[in-house]
Design a protein that fits this description.
Layout: H1 2-15, E1 81-84, E2 90-92, E3 97-104, E4 119-128, E5 134-145, E6 152-153, E7 158-162, E8 172-179, E9 188-189
Antiparallel strand pairs: 1-8, 2-7, 3-4, 3-6, 4-5, 5-7, 5-8, 8-9
Amino acid sequence: MNRQVGSALLVLAICAGLLPRLAMAQPSMPAAFPIVKPVIAYEHNSLFHPIQLDSGSAQLPDRSYPYGSTQGGARAVHLGVELASSRGTAVYASRAGKVIFAGTDDKTKLGPRLDYYGKVVIIAHAIESPAGEQIFTLYGHLDRIAVEAGQQVDDLELIGHVGTSGIAIGAHLHFEVRADDPFNYRATRNPALWLRHAAGSGLLIGAVREAAG
């Protein structure tokens, strides 16, 4: 009896506007499956190695001073990778794109200080990072530059030659991958994640080590 009276009073209250009519609405049912945003896959290892050997293979980066390394605190944090080679070795565009800088960095700050990379080439590519940022590649410490700003280059087109310009210990190519801002040396990405893997090889992308290494 009490339940019937309570139900009647609730209906009267709703009709009188004392309670919102939503109280009578049925609860919404959850979707059968969660809505998942589409995922866009980006192929990281899409850049050619900028130094190609006569054997047809590529010059691999120096493992003793990889991206992010300080060599045990002896050097500044490395913003790219080093490809050791003799002076005058040909340097090629890692992908097709537009040359946006070709010259010395004695007046344009491309690194932690002026004249850091010496003779430099920067190329803008039609490639995006997973975050949607445009990708640029930088080639430093060149001996000679074979391109000009504004020039379009193809995959593996000659852009310069290995040297020791700027702050360099021995002849080598300093290679960087930058995202979004080609003139910001803090906008680098790990080149090892972008350079093509050798046939039949893979890439270690993480490791846990003790304090002693």
